[in-house]
Amino acid sequence: MPDLATLSVTGPPVAGAQVVSRIALLLRLVGRDPSGSQLADIVRDSGLTRPTVHRLLSSLAAEGLLVLDPTSHTWRYGPEIFVMGTVAAPRYPIEELARPALQRLADATGESAFLSIRRGLETVCLMREEGSFPVRSFVLHEGVRFPLGVASAGLAILSALPDPEVDQVLTAQAGLTERWGAQNAAANIRLNVQATRERGCALNPGLILEGSWGMGAAIFDHAGRPTWALSLTGIEPRFRPDRQELLGGLLRQEAALLTARLAEL
Which residues form the IclR-ED domain (predicted)? Predict the structure, then answer.
């Protein structure tokens, strides 16, 4: 799926760019599941041939960027990814700032709280804090990616964008229903965007997995762009209308606090 930043590029192709794009895609696909990704799943979702995927994964493993688990035969991030992330982390303080917010949300609601970031046409879950309620939804965890507008975090971010950019995102996401179902067709996402703007936070009433609900609120960067989102997920009975106002208010409060803290940096 193309990144919005690539949609406006009109210059000549850069030598080797295709290889770089493929490697970046494979790294993203491997990172979706911390427990490891099967080769067959990576091949399916990359759209590349099995020999090509295996060759590139093996090359990345030789550089320490990936490892192949000999027992489960799954691909995972390698030690070089850890080193790169550690070096880059001080430049992106959002996780340090967000951890207390996630803890407060989890403590106050009993639900699992998450921080997600926008990356092009997707959101990526970065952090979570488990709530105390014993029955949980396991749709969301670190590394999981969803198209903008599908999950509550991505819907919160999409709804905070101007209408022309919403149109651009949905146009670039043609074919979304093939994987995510008719409930996530562009027309339905537009309705969800409008409802999110009216409500002040996003609501996902089991649109990804029946019975698994979520709510989200956008966090803005220095330029006023919705770049991250806080979300809460849980089972349907925990998100009844009489409780949605409480959950939404807490999410908006914490998102506003994080936006203000980021503006001070």
Answer: 80-264
Reported as a single tens digit per residue, the pLDDT across 77-135 is: 999 998 998 888 777 788 889 999 999 999 999 999 999 999 999 999 999 999 999 88
Is residue 219 within 8 A of residue 212, CB to CB? The reply is no
Domain final position from 87, 116, 144:
87
Report whether 43 contacts 49 (CB < 8 A): yes
Which portions of the chain are predicted below pLDDT 50?
A: 1-11
Provide the 10 A C-beta neighbour count for residue 17: 9
Please report the sign of the dihedral spanned by the C-alpha atoms of residue 106, residue 103, residue 217, residue 127. Answer: negative
Contact 153, 127 (CB under 8 A): no
Could you list the residue range(s) of the whole structural domain that residue 22 is in? 4-87
Last residue of a domain, one of 87, 119, 151: 87
The reported pTM is: 0.77
Instruction: State how far the Cα of 169 lies from the Cα of 226, in Å rounded to an integer.
Output: 14
Q: Which long-range contacts (CB under 8 A, 24 or more apart) does 69-72 make?
A: 69/36, 72/35, 72/36
Residue 143 confidence (pLDDT)? 85
Looking at residue 33, its pLDDT comes to: 81
Element (H, E) at 66: strand 66-68
CATH of the domain at 36: 1.10.10.10
